[in-house]
Give the backbone structure.
Amino acid sequence: MGPIKSSKSLVLRLELIGIAFITVLGSALHFTYELSGYNPLVGVFSAVNESVWEHLKLSFWPAMLYAAVEHRFLGRTVGNFHAAKGLGILVMPFTIVGLFYLYTAFLEENLLIDILIFVVAVAVGQLTSYRLMLWRPIPKAYQISLITALAILSALFTVFTFLPPQLPIFMDPVSGGYGVSS
């Protein structure tokens, strides 16, 4: 076990609350770009179209916000907090992409399955954080690597909102466009 001063039950409770928080806020962010009158700043944090890439923001940004709030309660008492949150947040978009492309290889896209994948990805990410917070100490190099990966992904979400590569994951299946221009 790592250097944890907070109780396991407190950590688990906060991670479970995080599942609800991230799911609700992420669901709302699906609509905020349009509701904002297509404000570009809102577009950085919201889905600007129906592409797979844009839907990854719906777990990423709420999870980052929740981690910032959660830091107030656990950041100084859980030795692996930053590494745990870093890995947990990174697991979410990878889970969404993996499960989405796996099921659409065999079935037609289905809104109910898409929503279920979103919730599962958030739960997997939060529970990954929970397990890692209770694990043995993580070397500083890994912690720095995870935080760096989050910073890079934050930058990519921002840049690719406006200048997405012309790849299938970035294409809006409704309009055929990319990024804010779709």
Notes: The chain has one domain: 8-166. The first helix runs from residue 8 to 35. Helices lie at 8-35, 40-45, 52-74, 81-104, 111-133, 140-162. Residues 8-166 form one domain.
